[in-house]
Amino acid sequence: MKETYIKEIERPEFKNPLLIEGLPGMGMVGRITARFLIKELGAKRFAELYSPHFPYYVLVNKKGSVRLVRAEFFFWKNPTAERDIIFLTGDSQAQTIEGQYDVADKILEFAAGLGVKVIITIGGYRKEADEAPKVVAVSTSQALLENALQGKAIASPAGNPIVGTAGLLLGLSRFRKIDALCLLGETGGYLQDPVAAKGVLQVLQTMLKLQIDLKNLDAQIEKSGEIAGRMREIEERRERYAQKMRKTEEKRITYIS
Amino acid sequence: MKETYIKEIERPEFKNPLLIEGLPGMGMVGRITARFLIKELGAKRFAELYSPHFPYYVLVNKKGSVRLVRAEFFFWKNPTAERDIIFLTGDSQAQTIEGQYDVADKILEFAAGLGVKVIITIGGYRKEADEAPKVVAVSTSQALLENALQGKAIASPAGNPIVGTAGLLLGLSRFRKIDALCLLGETGGYLQDPVAAKGVLQVLQTMLKLQIDLKNLDAQIEKSGEIAGRMREIEERRERYAQKMRKTEEKRITYIS
Amino acid sequence: MKETYIKEIERPEFKNPLLIEGLPGMGMVGRITARFLIKELGAKRFAELYSPHFPYYVLVNKKGSVRLVRAEFFFWKNPTAERDIIFLTGDSQAQTIEGQYDVADKILEFAAGLGVKVIITIGGYRKEADEAPKVVAVSTSQALLENALQGKAIASPAGNPIVGTAGLLLGLSRFRKIDALCLLGETGGYLQDPVAAKGVLQVLQTMLKLQIDLKNLDAQIEKSGEIAGRMREIEERRERYAQKMRKTEEKRITYIS
Amino acid sequence: MKETYIKEIERPEFKNPLLIEGLPGMGMVGRITARFLIKELGAKRFAELYSPHFPYYVLVNKKGSVRLVRAEFFFWKNPTAERDIIFLTGDSQAQTIEGQYDVADKILEFAAGLGVKVIITIGGYRKEADEAPKVVAVSTSQALLENALQGKAIASPAGNPIVGTAGLLLGLSRFRKIDALCLLGETGGYLQDPVAAKGVLQVLQTMLKLQIDLKNLDAQIEKSGEIAGRMREIEERRERYAQKMRKTEEKRITYIS
Fold first, then answer.
1. Which residue of C lies nearest to D236 if distances are taken between CA atoms?
2. Which of A188, B122, C190, C241 is a Cys-bridge partner for B30, taking CB atoms 3.0 to 4.6 Å apart?
3. What does the radius of gyration of chain B's CA atoms come to, in whole angstroms?
4. Which of 182-241 (C) contact A at CB < 8 A?
5. 3-class secondary-structure state, position A141
6. What angle do CA A158, A162, A163 make, to 5 degrees?
7. What average pLDDT does this structure show over D141-156?
8. pLDDT for D192-244, tens place per residue?
């Protein structure tokens, strides 16, 4: 495999489709969000994306078979609202700089071919303070951004970098006449952060008028809360210890110099 | 050399050929297994694979000449059973992500051209416990997997990654209508692990009804056992020491904080 | 995006244009210089350069929108002198070896197409002594070099490497029949060094007979001076401490050996 | 510059030409050897090799101008013997795996086009013992190897890797019907090792019946000998100290465990 490649399982007809991207990243916020929606809405897989820029291993599945690292496209035929939703999630992001640009571009090319005019990408955002996590929004379209802010997202400060596919899809969408919004759930960056994903889901629910029950995330939240609690404890002890050491060191430097 | 390149020395006619791949990897299980079979069966070299993704050095041979890092294809004309066997082994795997995908793809393209419909890849599997090493099997074909389980392999738990050529050949075989099985010998990961290779050879012997004498591996096993024993000793001492240090450190942290 | 790509917003007519390049680098000397001139002269943006070799993130701007990492071309219609000036500045340089060559080449190809016959690149130069920063000049053209030396730049000692786009543009300009000069402002290498940029601006002012007021840099210089002062203090304390440690260590070595 | 590129300054007619390659590497043995021969024989530059796989900087020369990192081809019209000699030396080797293969291949393609049937590559060889440095030879041709052994080179033990262009040229020469020999001067690996180069020059002198005076290397040898002496002293002190530390540590481990 020399090139990033999209294998279509079927090609459905879409009504004004919107693409929601949630690949692995900080706190796994994008992936948890996308997978939750796919499961709750019963979205159906219709295409797979393979790339020589993905990690070079295969994953064993439950039946003792294996598959390449990949991303997958799902669709949900919206029975009431005016637009169908396409989801993109997967195992990994591209592993090299040039690969990141290439994969993002292939996703956009495919999406444009499906008639997608709006993309929402989802990721994590490093949270500094210990408050309830907010959802940060940026968009290439003022209308989309306002839509997100009405859904309780907050605007991002200027100068922030948004790393990886969630960012590049916005940056590259300009060349395709696609509007794009990025929703970043604030997270402490722990391995799995379903609380941050829940925040993003609340914004999406309002924006897209989705009928889903977010309580189904609560078991996952409880479990990850326990893990995060233990990790925080260890970190805090380490930090207190490091501070003591720094103070001791500083005294010593003052003494010696 | 811009591209991975296969140089054919001869092009034999094959009867329903099966490819066994054993390139260097964890514990050198694949390479030891493939080389043992090639030697015992008297398989004959018929093609060489070169790649700009292999390490950029040459190796000196016994006659004072040199050759590029490469992989080699051998074949064995099976006098009794219904299928000939092709072997692939070599000096190295590709060194970059994109190179790994490219080399695996070139191998599959070549194998498909030779009429190969079944591939068995061999590798090592990180063993946790101190028990006798098992052989772990995964396959893209349920029939092949059951065949391996009858040969005393065990099924892999879900979620495991299989890294490198042994894994990618399975993942990419789907695009070529080739069935593939991966046999992973459990190993402590030491440089050379012929015990793990012996386990894989026992499974292969049963599966392929091969008449070979595994006793010829015993000298190699004895030698590597001595080395591994010494390495284990050193590691255990280190581990005991590190544990003491950690306990001392933890006491100190508790005291200071 | 598979290839470095220049998006033209408009294509002005130029009178004997000269290109000044100032991308991020040591002490940000090039970027500060180019941006100062663009602002003071009121230069106008007319093209954008995107590349899969740039970092794979997007940057959030003040309106809550985002854009890809990019470089930008500006032009200034010189009302009096005989030549217009084109400026190139941006967010980043290419992140891989091959990417550096590719981006530099694309810049030259575009410049040549605009009729550019002379390029001035700007960068930082590691300053050893604690004296007032000088401006070091090298050029592919003896006439350009002398012009810079008349503007109070000094010649570079032989053997120095000039890393990145500022250097490669000179090296590659030979293949395009473009003359090129590189002006390097001596800098301690701190994050932002407007003092070094001021030195370069003085040389440029003389060379190009520009009517600009360098006092507008002074606020920036004052601010960065405070930061640099604090950094220097910390470094000096560290250095004194490290020296003491080295002496103690040396005594110990002498004692033990 | 997307591709490795050879710029020909002139295209001389050659009489059965032989190529000697000496690019930078361990102890700079190849580069010192090639440059010494070029100077002593008065060889003339006729082609330059540029590559996007070389480091991305330019070098300042004595006239205050700059040039890209490059390799250069020189030729010497042999007035007496039956063959002309082409030399290849330069600033650097390719910096990536794929780049190494690409540059070596471009060199061979160019050499083949000039009618080269024999290549001698020169490098350094890690010396273990403290004896007088030998010259190690490997070759793709038995006749060439014997020729080198008659010139007092010794054969290489099997299994050794020869890294970089000096090795790859031998490995890849097979595909071009070119015979190749590699001469490796034993070196402690110091930055510049003209003693190792002298050893290689003695072998070349005998093999190629060259009339050159190796005494011209002696000043360089004396200077580098002083530097090496000082480095060795420092290293020995460090090693003695590290040994003491290891012994102390081992005692402690035994005590604790």
1. C257
2. B122
3. 20
4. 237-238, 240-241
5. coil
6. 150
7. 95
8. 899 999 999 999 999 999 989 999 899 889 888 888 788 778 878 877 877 77
Work out the average pLDDT over A24-49.
97
DSSP-derived pairing of the beta strands A18-22 and A118-126: parallel
Taking residues D75-91, report their average pLDDT: 92
Across the interface, do C156 and D64 touch by the CB < 8 Å criterion?
A: yes
Name which of D132, D144, D125, D237 is nearest D189 in CA terms.
D125
Q: Is C96 on the interface with A (CB under 8 A)?
A: yes
D59 touches chain C (CB under 8 A): yes
- Note the Cα C252 to chain centre separation in Å: 46
- Provide the token pair at D226: 């002083």
Question: Within 13 Å and on the Cβ side, how many CA atoms surround C90?
Answer: 25
Has this prediction a pTM greater than 0.95?
no
Pairing verdict, β D71-76 and D85-90: antiparallel
B99 in contact with D at a CB cutoff of 8 Å? yes
The answer to whether the CB atoms of A156 and C237 lie below 8 A apart is no
Chain B interface includes A61 (CB < 8 A): yes
- Give the residue on C whose Cα is nearest the Cα of D57: C163
- C-alpha–C-alpha distance, residues D40 and D211, integer Å: 9
Q: What does the block give as tokens for B21?
A: 């791949």
For every residue of C142-171, DSSP letters joined together read: HHHHHHHHHTT-EEPPTT-EEESHHHHHHH
Question: Is C56 in contact with A100 (Cβ distance < 8 A)?
Answer: yes
The H-assigned helical ranges of chain B are: 29-41, 97-113, 142-150, 165-173, 194-208, 218-256
Look up residue C208 and give its amino acid. L
Is there a contact between B102 and A58 if contact means CB atoms under 8 Å apart? no
Residues of B in contact with D160 (CB under 8 A): 59-60
Q: Kindly state whether D99 is in contact with chain C, defined as any CB-CB distance less than 8 angstroms.
A: yes
Question: C2 CA to chain A: closest CA distance, Å?
Answer: 6
- The nearest CA of chain D is from the CA of B204 a distance in Å of 30
The mean-pLDDT minimum among A212-216, C253-257, D81-85, D99-103 falls in: C253-257
Is A138–C66 a contact, with Cβ atoms under 8 angstroms apart? yes
- Interchain pair B97, A52: CB under 8 A: yes
- Rounded to the nearest 10 degrees, the angle between the axes of helix B194-208 and helix B218-256 is 130
Q: Which of B158-162, C98-102, C189-193 has the highest mean pLDDT?
A: C98-102
Mention every residue, 6+ apart, whose C-beta is less than 8 A from residue D48.
Answer: D6, D7, D9, D70, D71, D72, D73
Reported as a single tens digit per residue, the pLDDT across A196-227 is: 999 999 999 999 999 899 998 998 899 888 88
Contact C171 D68 (CB under 8 A): yes
Q: D223 to chain B nearest CA, in Å?
A: 32
**C-alpha to C-alpha distance for B181 and B170, rounded to whole angstroms:** 7
B250 pLDDT more than 80: no
Between CA D4 and CA B51 the distance in angstroms is 18
Measured between CA atoms, how close is A57 to chain B, in angstroms?
Answer: 4
Say if the ipTM goes beyond 0.95. Answer: no
